Amino acid sequence: MARTLLVLGTLLAVMLGWAYRVAHPPVEAPGAGEVTLWEIPPRDIVRVTGHTPRGTTTLTPEWPARGDTPAVWVQVQPAPSKGELAGRTPPAPPANTFRGNNQAVSALLALASPRASRRIGALRDLDPAEFGFPGDSGYVLVERAEPGTPIRLELGDLFVGKSQRYVHTPAEGLVFLVPEAAFRPFVLPAQRLMERRLLPFPPGEAARVDLRQGSRSASLWRLPGAEGEAPRWAARPDAADGEESARAFIEALPRVTVAEYLPPEQPLPPGTDVLEVRLFREAGTGAGTAPDAWVRFREAQGRTAAAVSSFTERPVQVPAPLLKALLARTTEVLNP
Fold first, then answer.
1. DSSP string spanning 188-206?
2. Which of 56, 62, 145, 229 lies in disulfide reach of 77, CB 3.0 to 4.6 Å?
3. Taking each helix axis from N to C terminus, what angle separates 320-334 and 244-252, rounded to the nearest 10 degrees?
4. 174-179 vs 164-169, strand pairing mode
């Protein structure tokens, strides 16, 4: 009797293991089972929208005249709460828009040619519930420049280990296993996608930096140096050595980062400009030459201060303590 029970138990374990393997196929080594879901020119993408229980996240590219890296603007619309749906709480704030960081750019470009670890099969031949279809994970839409139906990608359950996710392409009716990293920009808080920089390049890469505070102004020059040597800065282009006050200002400027973007329709709040900085990649630019980047700061109001730059394109809020530290470095430059 014991022998019979042992045999039956072994057979049951084998059958259960086989059933689990069918429902959750193993991830093959990279390259062994990889497939491309679709392939379109990146510049054909005009919008990518992720709909998840958190709300809607939209990525809109602005393609440059040259180059293949767009600026990406992110619009976030939180999902209504249960209280809102029942009319018991005020509606959520309107959607906000901000410049996306490198993660937002990578997320958009990846959807021009998304890769799957492997193809699972046709959904009609599978048990949809085993893979999370239909479910509440959401879906992603890729809109193209040419007329037609957007490409839709439905999100299913996470695979064991949560590093992969099942997805369904309704147009083909196929199920794939795709790295979860491709969808994190849509399923995690969208604030992770916000560009926090005020300037498009580090101030230390400029050749000249002009600063103005009220009626006072100064120019800081990057001095020639040996390759690999730390940049030296001074208030005169012919200075024999770098100046500590100039170096401290250049290092303090990028520490002032964006805390929040103001709503698109909101202008720069009224107030007094406390500092304007203009950056030039070439030192020999003459008067009236447009800078390669600029930023203006308004006086602080409480814990934040308003600012606007050529990179943000819209008013933003920055932490008041960071601006205060930069203004202290400004005073040292203007009052040597």
1. S-GGGGB---SSSS-GGG-
2. 56
3. 160
4. antiparallel
Enumerate domains of the chain plus CATH numbers.
35-193 (2.60.40), 203-334 (no CATH)
Which of 328, 332, 329, 198 has the alpha carbon at shortest distance from 256? 198
Dist CA 245 CA 21 (whole Å) = 65
Nearest to 259 by CA among 176, 334, 315: 315
Token digits of residue 118: 């492997």
Amino acid at 169: T
Q: What is the pLDDT of residue 28?
A: 39
Answer for the pair 126, 133: CB distance below 8 angstroms, yes or no. Answer: no
Which tens digits make up the pLDDT trace of 137-155?
899 999 998 878 899 999 9
The whole-number average pLDDT for the span 293-313 is 94
Rounded to whole angstroms, the Cα distance separating 50 from 154 reads 10
| pLDDT (tens digit per residue) in 165-206 | 999 999 999 999 998 888 888 888 878 999 999 999 999 999
Q: What digits encode the pLDDT tens for the residues 14-40? A: 343 434 333 334 333 334 478 999 999
